[in-house]
Structure formats: structure tokens, C-alpha cells
User: Fold this.
Amino acid sequence: MDVNIHPSWKAVLSAEFEKPYFEHLIPFVKQQYADHICYPPGKQIFSAFDHCPFDKVEVVILGQDPYHGPGQANGLCFSVNDGIPMPPSLLNIFKEIQADLDKPFPPTGNLERWAEQGVLLLNSVLTVRKGEANSHQGQGWETFTDAVIQKISDEKENVVFLLWGGPAKKKGARVNRSRHLVLESGHPSPLSANRGLWFGNKHFSKTNAFLAEKGKNQVIW
Assistant:
């Protein structure tokens, strides 16, 4: 099956595209986009991979599924398009960066600038119907993104995995922790953050300290 994804990822994931679950997934997604308004736009479904080729991956951040409001989702987890107000979770991410690294709030919530520095912004499920969170769960995306994590774990070294919240932590079970750094905390959503499970995790400075120790470029968060 031909999938429009960055060549570096196509080489690594080609076996997945021939598996029965993926043969089911693609017609499901096409039908959903034909029958409903879905996000992100079709050309941006694999944006996380297009902005961060396999050989460039240094950090992985795991989200759940895309934002389901108009104009928000752009294929990168937690990211919104330029000019779109920042959702609460993203605001809390920037608040933690501000406290951790003394960096001012950015003018936009578009995280393409992170992706282009080697941060894979991966949602567990890559598509969603308008206004219906989790509406594309259980159709095969989770199996696909599990395979992505497994490939990174097996074929790369010294990648930082940032696992925020229960679902991300479960997905991180596939990561070989003797080869990679895994940092876990609560989710940046207000529900979790307001219970003291997010703020103060210092994941951004810890990530950069690890990258520097391994002789890699630090992320300009």
C-alpha cells in the first residue's frame, strides 16, 4: 500500500503498511474524511513524520489524538496552527518551559520549530472527527504508532521519551530504558496540572542536559 510519508520513515515502516490492520485502517480513514469533517487536513495526517525524519529523531513527545476544533490540528501533537489560541494543555507546557528555562511565552503555539530540531510530536491516534474526541480510536492507529515507538527504541540510541499522563506511560512500555532516557509526569491538561502532577517536572532542562551529555544539540524550546 502506498502511503504518503517521508521516505526515511517509509523505509523503516514499510512492513507495517502491508499488515492486515493497516489494510483496514486506510479505507476507514478515507471513508471518514469523505463522510465527515475530520482533522487534521488529509495532507497533514503524517506531518509529525514529514517534519522530523527518522534519522533526525532525538526526542519523542506522545499525545493522544488530534485537537478536534476547527483550524487547530496540524498533525503534530499539542501543536496548533499559527493564529489559533493556545489550548489549555499547550499553555501549561509553555508555563513549565517558562519556569524551567526562564523563557518567555512564544508568539505562536505552532510547534513545527520543535519538530525541525528532532522532536517527534506523535499522537497515538493520528485522525479525529470534528467535535468528537477519540472518535478514531481502536481502528489501527494505536498499532501503527506502537510500531513507530518500537522502531525508534530498537534502531536508535539515546533518544529522550517524554511521557505525560497514563496513556503515554502505557505506550512507553515498548521503550528499552537501557538505551534511552524516559521521563514521565502527569499530563499538562488543567485537570492533571492543577493536582500538582505536571508543574515542576523540569522535563525540558532534563532533556537538554541529557542531549548535551551525549554530544547532541540541545532543543531550543
In short: The longest strand covers residues 59-63. The chain has a mean pLDDT of 96. The radius of gyration is 17 Å. The chain is about 35% helix and 10% strand.
